[in-house]
Specification:
Distance between the termini: 28 Å
Order of helices and strands: EEHHH
Number of helices: 3
Number of domains: 1
Length: about 80
């Protein structure tokens, strides 16, 4: 089982932290590299787009899942 990584980031001028399992954090870093933006910028985008009551860490996990689903052919 992978450990939880806590990462501090600055979003629109205020510091916050997210706690994510290592594979989710690695995938977010990969997405940021593909998009040529910083991890902090990607997290800020996801945070700005949140319209539900999910906390930021949960929303980041859902973002990773959605990204993977859009890049994976449907095998159903």
């Amino acid at each position: 089982m992978s450990g939880i990584a806590k990462r501090s980031v600055s979003i629109r001028g205020h510091k916050t932290s997210v706690s994510l399992e290592e594979p989710f954090l690695a995938e977010l870093e990969s997405i940021a590299r593909r998009r040529n933006i910083s991890l902090a910028a990607l997290i800020a985008e996801v945070d700005a787009a949140r319209q539900d009551e999910n906390n930021l860490s949960s929303r980041l996990r859902l973002y990773v899942l959605q990204d993977l689903k859009t890049r994976t052919p449907d095998n159903a």
